[in-house]
Amino acid sequence: MASRDDDVLYRRQNLTFALLHARRPRSRDWIRRHVDGYQNASEKTLQRDLRYLRSIGVPVTITHDDVGISAEHYELPPVTFTPAEATVIGLAGELGRAGEIGAFARSGWTKLAAGGARRDLSTPQMATHTSYNDTTRLSPGFLTRVLAAVDKQRRIRFQYRPSPAAASQTREMDVWGLVPHDGRVYLVGHDLDRDEPRCFRAVRVSGVEEAGPAEHPPVDDLRAVVRQSLDARRESVDAVLSAPEDYAGELGEARDGVISLKNVDADWLVRTAAAYAPEVVVKEPAEIRQRVVALLEEVAGE
């Protein structure tokens, strides 16, 4: 059974839509005869509803006995963003896909998209998600602490593991932001240990805490810091993988159940092989196979 509040909401909603879609203002008598909920309503009730609609921003116009709503002032202007802004907002939704902020983030982007916002999905940083995509693995707590430090221009101290099997290190950074790149998210800032701009993979960072005021202002292009840092660390390898004879995918085409790769990025190979495991298995080199296993164990333990 509907409550009184539901009846009031239903009546006011009907009144709003009736006036909004009318070609001209309507008389009070017309409202009582045509708008559901007002057939037995008093003049006092109608006046109270009109005052309420005005109080919440509905542009109600009253001229003598006629009542209307200005459609021109009722509708919000189109929502517009630059491609970069729309991508950032879209990424915020992606960051919450698998975490506690998921429903809220998806809801926010859905409302913006309904208003006309668009984002560029063709760039690498917005690549299709897999179980190993960093944007599904960052916790709300981590994001809150890092973004608060960025906003307040604070230095942070944290634990960092260079690889899944490596021991953690204590690092300090004047943090500038989080940058998505090729399915990963990087913490970017001025590294106090090396005294230079640097990035750290965000999912390998833990125990973030403030460590005083920042002294190094951010550079203009944080993405350039990530690209330069990754280029400096790039490692190329030759590899042999086993795969089903009919396999033809991102890792190449299998011939007699074998895929041979030359001069490929080792980091890319580890992530991609992990994504296709156990169908595809790295045979050589042994170090890459061990890194794939470590990554799979890391994900399984989360």
| Distance linking N and C termini | 46 Å
- The neighbouring-strand order within the major sheet is 7-6-5-4-8
Q: Count the E strands.
A: 13
The rounded Rg comes to 28 Å
Low-confidence stretches: 114-132
Q: Into which percentage range does the β-strand content fall?
A: 25-35%
The total count of helices amounts to 10
Mean pLDDT, rounded to whole units? 80
Which class of secondary structure composition applies to the elements? alpha+beta
- Just name the CATH architecture of the largest domain: Roll
Task: Tell the overall outline.
Answer: elongated
Tell me about the largest β-sheet. 5 strands, antiparallel
CATH topology of the largest domain: SH3 type barrels
Binned, the helix content reads: 25-40%
Pfam family, one: WCX
Protein name: WYL domain-containing protein
Domain WCX: 244-300
Domain WYL: 142-209
3D structure, described in words:
The chain is α+β, with helices and mostly antiparallel strands. It has four domains: 4-74, Winged helix-like DNA-binding domain superfamily/Winged helix DNA-binding domain (Arc Repressor Mutant, subunit A); 83-134, no CATH class; 145-233, SH3 type barrels (Roll), CATH 2.30.30; 236-300, no CATH class. 39% of the residues lie in helices and 25% in strands. A five-stranded antiparallel beta sheet has the order 7-6-5-4-8, with helices on both faces. Strands 1-3-2 form a three-stranded antiparallel beta sheet. The chain has a three-stranded antiparallel beta sheet with strand order 12-9-13, with helices on one face. Strand 2 and strand 3 (66-69) form a beta hairpin. Helix 5 packs antiparallel against helix 6 and helix 9 crosses helix 10 (286-300).
